[in-house]
């Protein structure tokens, strides 16, 4: 396994200082880009194969080129740090400890797409990341790397922070646009896509903060080098979060192509309980994988073939002795509480899923699997955002993977 660390180091202390950032090569990519042309940045990004780190894994270059191709002088960049999924701390960690890297990536995006303003979108209760970002913006502005004449090259770009509400849906990219415009953070219908009509009706490039942080590194070292890290389908590294289940909880950076076992044992030191892993949940909004997949390669193509995905990388485990029905109910309750109420199919699915699972937990007998299958099939693809699919994935995979557990809880010895 490659040991490349592109973004992070072990920082028990506070944020990386501006001097440390510069000593590590910070702003070299921006200096080089400003001396070249926007197309050089876009071409390198495309060649690198960088995918978004917000969960969907969409090619970053496609978004950037869409915005760059739009006419007009008014364009925007939005770095989405609206992290509100239980079990994920990677965006908080990145912005708190390495804010300059995120900001440099935003400026590079502004240069490449023709944007003049950026918004760093952070949840309003992220006190430490907010403070670190505010300080870093002032440092870059004072040093001439934000403002009217960046690097003396006549390029104007500035960044402000937007404090987002503490709701899960506020992290969806079009809900973030609504929030910045001063409205409730609820998803927009698509198309048009943000790259065509985003903030204030203007072309807007929206990426996760981790995505932006990768851009300076790949430009500094070249697309070919970046592609040599990770896998062909997913070049580079990704940040993963391990919680209190493990001996060494925290945020870890691993190259794509690493395995869940390497994350659990090599990074986390194994389960705190000393028990056995029964299943893996790559993130709250993903499908469960069995323990036999501990050695599965963590990349988009491999997990897609297994019926799951990496999501935001907030990895948790079902251990021997865990109540899997209670765990499924907790996840369903989260999605019911966090759906925004805008789309009737989403309200129906999330509410009814909780109702059915409460019946299972109360031992009310068979029929639950058929009800949930019909419910999720009816609602599939009908919402403005992907919350319907995100809520269904852990639920339906749990029914398949833990069939006997659900049958016992419902009062029978066999699955219905």
Task: Jot down its keywords.
416 residues; alpha/beta; 5-stranded mixed β-sheet; 17 helices; globular
Number of strands: 10
The helix/strand class is alpha/beta
How far is it from the N-terminal to the C-terminal residue, by CA? Answer: 43 Å
Name the average pLDDT. 94
Any idea what the shape is?
globular
Name the quaternary structure: single chain
Number of helices, where a helix is a run of at least 4 consecutive DSSP H or I residues? 17
In the predicted model, the low-confidence regions spanning at least 5 consecutive residues are: none
Spatial arrangement of strands, main beta sheet: 3-4-2-1-5
Alpha carbon gyration radius: 22 Å
How is the biggest beta sheet arranged?
5 strands, mixed
Q: In what range is the share of β-strand residues?
A: 5-15%
Order of helices and strands: HHHHEHHEHEEHEHHEEHEEHEHHHHH
Helix % is 40-55%
What features would you describe in this structure?
This protein is an alpha/beta fold and 416 residues long. 43% of the residues lie in helices and 14% in strands. It contains 17 helices and 10 strands. A hairpin with a 4-residue loop joins strand 3 (147-150) and strand 4.
């Amino acid at each position: 396994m490659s040991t490349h660390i592109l973004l992070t180091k072990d920082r028990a202390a506070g944020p990386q200082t501006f001097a440390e950032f510069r000593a590590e090569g910070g702003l070299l990519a921006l200096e080089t880009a400003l001396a070249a042309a926007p197309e050089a940045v876009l071409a390198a990004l495309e060649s690198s194969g960088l995918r978004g780190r917000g969960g969907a894994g969409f090619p970053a270059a496609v978004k950037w080129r869409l915005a760059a191709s739009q006419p007009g002088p008014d364009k925007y960049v939005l770095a989405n740090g609206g992290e509100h999924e239980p079990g994920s701390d990677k965006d908080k960690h990145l912005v708190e400890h390495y804010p300059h890297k995120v900001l440099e990536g935003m400026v590079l995006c502004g240069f490449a797409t023709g944007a003049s303003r950026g918004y760093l979108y952070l949840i309003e209760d992220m006190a430490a990341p907010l403070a670190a970002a505010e300080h870093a913006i002032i440092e870059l502005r004072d040093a001439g790397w934000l403002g009217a004449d960046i690097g003396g090259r006549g390029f104007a770009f500035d960044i402000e922070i937007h404090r987002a509400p503490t709701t899960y849906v506020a992290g969806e990219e079009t809900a973030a646009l609504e929030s910045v415009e001063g409205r409730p953070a609820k998803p927009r219908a698509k198309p048009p896509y943000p790259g065509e009509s985003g903030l204030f009706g203007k072309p807007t490039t929206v990426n996760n903060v981790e995505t932006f942080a990768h851009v300076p590194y790949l430009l500094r070292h070249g697309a070919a080098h970046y592609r040599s890290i990770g896998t062909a389908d997913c070049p580079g590294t990704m940040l993963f979060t391990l919680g209190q289940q493990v001996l060494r909880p925290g945020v870890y950076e691993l190259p794509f192509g690493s395995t869940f076992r390497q994350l659990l044992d090599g990074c986390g030191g194994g389960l705190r309980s000393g028990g056995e892993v029964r299943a893996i949940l790559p993130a709250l909004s993903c499908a469960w994988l069995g323990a036999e997949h501990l050695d599965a390669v963590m990349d988009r193509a491999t997990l897609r073939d297994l019926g799951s995905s990496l999501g935001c990388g907030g990895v948790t485990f079902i251990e021997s002795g865990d109540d899997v029905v209670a765990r499924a109910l907790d996840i369903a309750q989260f999605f019911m509480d966090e759906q925004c109420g805008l789309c009737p199919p989403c309200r129906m699915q999330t509410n009814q899923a909780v109702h059915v699972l409460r019946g299972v937990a109360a031992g009310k007998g068979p029929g639950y699997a058929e009800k949930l299958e019909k419910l999720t099939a009816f609602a599939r693809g009908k919402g403005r955002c992907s919350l319907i699919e995100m809520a269904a994935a852990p639920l339906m995979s749990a029914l398949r993977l833990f069939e006997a557990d659900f049958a016992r809880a419902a009062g029978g010895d066999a699955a219905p």
